[in-house]
Write a structure and sequence with these properties.
Elements lengths: L3 H25 L5 E2 L8 E7 L6 E8 L5 E4 L11 E4 L4 H37 L1
Antiparallel strand pairs: 1-5, 2-3, 4-5
Helix pairs in contact: 1-2
């Protein structure tokens, strides 16, 4: 019970790390082309739920976006179809970068909670030894 702050912040760290991983995958595959008509890379989204048996938040899963890929006219591309189109993921770099900043800030905030709670617990132990 004493270490609830560290435990809860730890669950937040895990969620934000998974979110950062998904965003990294999305950004890394933003220019992954596929032949038109074939399945393009789909944006990965992390779903989160509140803890039921213990406090905190947990990753419920990583799902793929339902958004269709975007067709780009590029007749010189090796994957171009007979009409000259190539399929790319429907991942927006601006959105991904914005979410990356949010996930990073959330991770940093949870790490600060762990650090401050650890400092407070150490101070309480010093007082007890007093």
């Amino acid at each position: 019970m004493t270490f609830d702050a560290i435990g809860i912040a730890g669950t937040g760290l895990n969620v934000h790390r998974k979110w950062l991983d998904a965003l990294s995958d999305n950004i890394a595959n933003i220019n992954t082309a596929t032949p038109a008509g074939e399945e393009a890379f789909r944006e990965r989204l992390v779903t989160v739920q509140a803890g039921t048996r213990s406090p905190g938040v947990y990753v419920a899963g990583v799902v793929e976006s339902e958004a269709e890929g975007r067709l780009v006219y590029d007749p010189e591309h090796p994957y171009a179809d007979e009409a000259g189109y190539v399929q790319y993921p429907n991942v927006d770099l601006g959105d991904q970068m914005s979410m990356l900043i949010l996930a990073q800030r959330g991770y940093e905030a949870n790490a600060a909670v762990v650090d401050r709670a650890k400092t407070a617990y150490e101070a309480a132990l010093q007082i007890g030894r007093g």
